Amino acid sequence: MSEVLHLTLEGFEGPLDLLLDLARKQKVDLAQISILQLVEQYLTVVEKARAEARSLRLELAADWLVMAAWLAWLKSRLLLPAENNAQEEAEDAVEQLQERLFELERMRLAAQWLQERPRLGVDVFRRGQGEEYIEIDRSGLRVDLSALITAYLAAKRRSGKKRVYTPKVRQYWSVQDALERLKRLLGVEKVSGWQTLGSLLPDHLLLDENPLDRSAAFAGTLLASLEMAKSGVLEFQQEEAFAEIRWRAVS
């Protein structure tokens, strides 16, 4: 059975709820609508559903009947002589009917949402019977919870003072260390030609896997060598920006 009662009348063609909406907004002339045709088409749909042995939803058929009755009542208000407050009563009746239609639409959408949800046994399936098993404790331990807590507290009391975390202090290659190494190299070895800045670093720093230590060593060595260059002992060369820095002793 269809969710919508489609009407084909002299002054209107479409679903019944649309006719009510148009009547509320005064966009259709109810005087031109044949209530007799409306009732006949309603009965035709109901009888057809019964004849074809389809499921006849009584609540839906009842809603259609109520809508048709409201339309007949509204049209009667137009045909009968006007009384005091008749127009206001008709407008109130239309608003009540419109609110009922909105409620029915919300119920229909909620029912559709529930129908589209995964259904147990159709879309999803319950887990089968769980496997039965017997747990066997082969440890031979018999532990009492209160005794375990007592032993733990006793061990904590025997541990004495709480341990205090002391972070490891890292020793970085300072500018002073680099300056002393430079003076020692220039005083002992005869260095000729341009050398890389890395040649001034100790071997253990060049092989250090910690990038922070290597960066600190390079920075300290660069500052120390700049001090030596300021004193006229060293000179530097860099071909372009961010290129490798080279040095040599001033003869």
Quick structural gist:
Residues 39-107 form a coiled coil. This protein is mainly alpha-helical.
Tell me what you see in this structure.
- This protein has 251 residues and is mainly alpha-helical.
- The protein folds into two domains: 6-116, no CATH class; 175-249, Structural maintenance of chromosome 1. Chain E (Arc Repressor Mutant, subunit A), CATH 1.10.10.
- The chain has helices at residues 16-24, 35-51, 58-79, 86-116, 145-158, 175-188, 203-206, 211-230; strands spanning 6-8, 13-15, 195-196, 234-237, 246-249.
- The strands form two sheets. The chain has a three-stranded antiparallel beta sheet. A two-stranded antiparallel ribbon has the order 1-2.
- Helix 1 (16-24) packs antiparallel against helix 4 (86-116).
How is the topology of this model organized?
Blueprint: E1 6-8, E2 13-15, H1 16-24, H2 35-51, H3 58-79, H4 86-116, H5 145-158, H6 175-188, E3 195-196, H7 203-206, H8 211-230, E4 234-237, E5 246-249
Antiparallel strand pairs: 1-2, 3-5, 4-5
Coiled coil: 39-107
InterPro entries: ScpA
Keywords: Coiled coil
Strand and helix order: EEHHHHHHEHHEE
Q: What is the domain tally?
A: 2
Tally of helical segments: 8
Q: Which structural category fits the helices and strands?
A: mainly alpha
Low-confidence stretches at least 5 residues in length (pLDDT < 50)?
A: none
Mean pLDDT: 75
Tally of extended strands?
5
Helix amount: 40-55%
Q: What is the approximate shape?
A: elongated
